């Protein structure tokens, strides 16, 4: 029985997939708290699609994926910030950059048919195709982004909840917008190979939304969300081996299951509290003045 449970760990590619998946889950979970607090799910979704254009162009030009997609992602994030500063609504700026980049990717794919298989990996991820280079990239990005979050924790905290209050406290809102957009682009580029364009947003939003149900304290939410992201990634990839399904899909489905269970549990707890308060009011009615 034990041999059966440990069989996946006999393969080096599976161990790499586990390590990268846990790091990606941790990072997505922590970053996701900022995204759901600022209601920025759309920009995360948009950037993931925009970066696809850079990934395709990198393949065609024969340059390193992380370099090409990374530069493209950073430029896309800066262009979105530039358009937003030019009186273009944020959602419109995201839509313009996203659709233009995605359309460019599709146009190149329609010309270079040989990219079809790589395109599927970009859309849905390929955890079991992780290389040692991918492991180092994700590890470095994780350390850098978590360090930035630690250093800029207070400015990002003010920025997340109230931009006007942040400005009053001397926080440059535009600088925080730009910093977080670049951090988000780095997150997406580093995890694109693992989760794919279609699943990245789920890995970012679902653990953070689950943590939001369990706590309303920002720091605690980040810890819970990061832990959920890492644990779900580990067991999601592990289960995918036995269920013979795509690892990225397995991770997202397991994360959704955890969210559903927590949602049901918190709703039951809330109803019990309301019932207890109601019974207490009937047992000990307040004394009213005549």
UniProtKB/TrEMBL annotation:
Record carries keyword Disulfide bond: no
One Gene Ontology CC term in the entry: ATP-binding cassette (ABC) transporter complex
GO biological process: one example: transmembrane transport
Keyword annotations: Membrane, Transmembrane, Transmembrane helix, Transport
Gene3D superfamilies recorded: ABC transporter involved in vitamin B12 uptake, BtuC
InterPro entries: ABC_BtuC-like (IPR037294), ABC_TroCD (IPR001626)
Domain of life of the source: Bacteria
Subcellular location field: Cell membrane; Membrane
Name of the protein described by the UniProt record: Metal ABC transporter permease
């Amino acid at each position: 029985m034990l041999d059966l449970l440990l069989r996946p760990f006999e393969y080096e590619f599976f161990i790499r997939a586990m390590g990268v998946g846990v790091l990606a889950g941790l990072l997505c979970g922590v970053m996701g708290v900022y995204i759901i607090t600022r209601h920025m799910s759309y920009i995360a979704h948009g950037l993931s699609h925009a970066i696809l254009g850079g990934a395709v162009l990198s393949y065609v030009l024969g340059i390193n994926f992380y370099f090409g997609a990374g530069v493209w992602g950073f430029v896309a994030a800066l262009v979105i910030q530039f358009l937003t500063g030019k009186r273009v609504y944020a959602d419109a700026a995201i839509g313009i950059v996203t659709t233009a980049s995605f359309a460019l990717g599709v146009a190149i794919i329609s010309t270079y048919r040989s990219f079809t298989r790589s395109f599927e990996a970009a859309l849905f991820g390929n955890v079991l195709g992780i290389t040692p280079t991918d492991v180092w990239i994700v590890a470095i990005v994780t350390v850098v982004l978590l360090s930035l979050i630690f250093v800029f924790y207070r400015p990002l905290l003010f920025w997340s909840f109230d931009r006007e209050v942040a400005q009053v406290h001397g926080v440059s809102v535009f600088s925080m917008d730009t910093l977080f957009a670049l951090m988000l682009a780095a997150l997406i580029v580093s995890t694109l190979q693992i989760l794919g364009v279609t699943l990245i947003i789920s890995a970012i939003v679902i653990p953070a939304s689950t943590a939001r149900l369990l706590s309303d304290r920002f720091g605690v939410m980040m810890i819970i969300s990061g832990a959920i992201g890492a644990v779900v990634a580990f067991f999601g990839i592990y289960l995918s081996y036995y269920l013979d399904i795509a690892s990225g899909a397995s991770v997202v489905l397991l994360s959704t299951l955890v969210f559903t269970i927590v949602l049901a549990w918190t709703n039951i707890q809330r109803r019990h509290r309301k019932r207890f308060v109601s019974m207490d009011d009937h047992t000990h009615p307040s004394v009213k003045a005549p």
